[in-house]
Design brief:
- This protein is α/β, with parallel strands linked by helices and 189 residues long.
- The chain is built from four helices and eight strands; from the N terminus they run E-H-E-H-E-E-E-H-E-H-E-E.
- Helix 1 (17-30) runs parallel beside helix 2 (50-63) and helix 1 packs parallel to helix 3 (99-111).
- One of its GO terms (molecular function) is RNA-3'-phosphate cyclase activity.
Amino acid sequence: MTDKPVEIDGTFGEGGGQVLRTSLSLSLVTGRPLQITNIRGGRSRPGLRKQHLVCVQAARQICGAETSGDALGSKELTFVPGPVRAGRYRFEIASAGSTTLVAQTLLPALSLAGGPSQVTITGGTHNSWAPPFDFVAEVFLPAVARMGFRSEAALHRHGFYPAGGGEIAVSVEPWNKADAVPLDLCQPA
């Protein structure tokens, strides 16, 4: 592992929260430190919003990361991950921010943590500009299961804009290479 952080410009591509979420997920999986500048620089209100901050806090909690810049409105973040730990986790967005996007940030790393995990997230479950819970449960998770990633999701309570208040629970089993098959999504199922 290298101590030099991977440097990410948050204005890259669409310049939104997906740059942050993907970067955090890859940092968790690889163990490489991360430094992001211009977070959500392509948005009219750049910087960390509640949902993005919860992604950072959740990623920090599952691996004991050292962080700086993890505050509402921050446009820069340093994230130095530790080993990802399987376990029971609960994260509250306290708005209608997307529960499914927080889950997608964590699931790859938790599946490689060596033990089962249970993640409960409160917030929005059916949001504009984010995959709704039903897509994650019925399309995304079955697709990644074909690659050996076994997870199940339960919708405990719906949450919509502007109040949120929804709750999802995701169980994550350790990745099993024996279950993995090449994934070919070139033809409709």
